[in-house]
Structures are given as C-alpha cells and as structure tokens.
Amino acid sequence: MGLLECCARCMVGAPFASLVATGLCFFGVALFCGCGHEALTGTEKLIETYFSKNYQDYEYLMNVIHAFQYVIYGTASFFFLYGALLLAEGFYTTGAVRQIFGDYKTTICGKGLSATVTGGPKGRGSRGQHQAHSLDRVCHCLGKWLGHPDKFVGITYALTIVWLLVFACSAVPVYIYFNTWTTCQSIAFPSKTSASIGSLCADARMYGVLPWNAFPGKVCGSNLLSICKTAEFQMTFHLFIAAFVGAAATLVSLLTFMIAATYNFAVLKLMGRGTKF
C-alpha cells in the first residue's frame, strides 16, 4: 500500500505541463527522425534516377545524406533519454513547489525527491527507515541527481536554440519540393500560366543539391510532370512535410519544458528553499 499510495499522491501532484511536453517531444522526435530518414532515402533515389547520370556529380550529396541519417539515429536516442530526464525533473521541482505552497502532501516518495531542493526533514527512527528502505533510497538518490534545476534550464535553453535552427533547416526541403510540385501543376494545367511547357523546369543545381557541371541537373516539361506523378516523389514530399511537423512539435515541447522549468526554479529560488543553487 505504501508504493501504491506514493504513486497515487505523485499522480495527484503530477506536472501536467511536463507530461504534455514529454508526449509532444516523443511524438515530434519520432516523426521527425523516422520521416526525415525515409525522406532522405527517397531524395537519394530521385537524384540518382532523374537528375544525374554520373555518380561523381552526386557523390558528395550522398555522403551528406548518409551523415544526416546517422545524426538522426543519435538525435532520436538523445531526445528520448533527455525527455525522460526532463519529465523526472518536472515531477521533482513541481512536487517541491507544491510542498512550499501547501498544495501537495508529501509521502515517502515526495520527501525523498524534494529533500535535496527544499532541505525538508528526513524520516527518523529505525522503524521508519526500515519501512522506507529501497523506495526511499531510490527516490533520494534520484533527488540528489536532479537537484540542479538551473542546469536543466540552461541545457534546455541551449537545445531550444539549436532545435530552432533544425526547424528552419527542415523547412528547406519542403520549400524545394513545394516549388517542384507547383511547377508540375503549371505543366499539368498550361492555361494557368503564360510560359511554355518546355521552359518549366526543376533544376537541382539551383538549390545547391548538385554542382553546376552536373548533367542533366534539371528536368523540364512533360518529363518533370511524369516524375511528379510517381509515388516515390509524392511519398518523399509528404515525408518531408511530416518531418517538418515533427520538428515543430519538438520545438513547442522544448519551449514548454523551458517555461515550466524556469517557473519552478524561480519559485524555489525566490522562496529561499533551494539548497543546490
């Protein structure tokens, strides 16, 4: 009953902002990494099939794509681990803040987690220590490790800045594919444009995807329209859109984490209850 009571009390005092942000972070990172990986693979196939016949022209691009795919593996692992740590920090600091304002009665788990920040009294007596035993030790060790919310605020702030750049970069392939799709729409409906169909092209060299000496480097007219109608192009385009949405969701989750952690840290600091600051 002690463990069940601890879990029940912890759920009552759960940091709902951190819970929502954690779910959004996991969803966004999974969407960004999974869809981004497959979209890069699709881009590689489109380039080598339609835009260049010489491997040396897109060899550097392939190396960059493979490097990004490995980075995606590391990004997914890091954010799933860091998201779990931020959730634990949310429980940690929120429990301490609610204890200060009297909105949350602590149990063995609550005391173990909040002792490092609030400097609250520990249970005394051999009998009480025997009842707490393993749960108290685990919670107290976790509390010592998480007793630096200021560092979590700083790390999360830096990650938010970095991820803002990732979010901006994820919009670039969406922009390129959208321009290509718009050109295909003009070819499919020539009455909507005054230009001749033969002059409507998608040039990979213009976006820096291929060097200027790559051949053919661009596809025009009906050939471009046939590419846009392939399932491979449509799937890659939608995967990049999904990856962009995932990057946006991750950015929102990091901002939520940063706001919640900053608020909790400020309250603990101003109330003079922080002993690890």
UniProtKB/TrEMBL annotation:
Biological process terms in GO annotation: astrocyte development; axon development; central nervous system myelination; inflammatory response; long-chain fatty acid biosynthetic process; positive regulation of gene expression
Cross-referenced Pfam families: Myelin_PLP (PF01275)
An example molecular function term from Gene Ontology annotations: structural constituent of myelin sheath
Assigned keywords, A-Z: Cell membrane, Disulfide bond, Lipoprotein, Membrane, Palmitate, Transmembrane, Transmembrane helix
Membrane topology: Multi-pass membrane protein
Keyword Disulfide bond: yes
Highest rank taxon of the organism: Eukaryota
GO CC annotations, alphabetized: myelin sheath; plasma membrane
InterPro entries the UniProt entry points to: Myelin_PLP (IPR001614), Myelin_PLP_CS (IPR018237)
Localization terms from the record: Cell membrane; Myelin membrane
Transmembrane segments: 12-32, 67-88, 152-178, 239-266
Function: This is the major myelin protein from the central nervous system. It plays an important role in the formation or maintenance of the multilamellar structure of myelin.
Similarity section: Belongs to the myelin proteolipid protein family.
Protein name: Myelin proteolipid protein
Species, as recorded: Vombatus ursinus
Record lineage: Eukaryota, Metazoa, Chordata, Craniata, Vertebrata
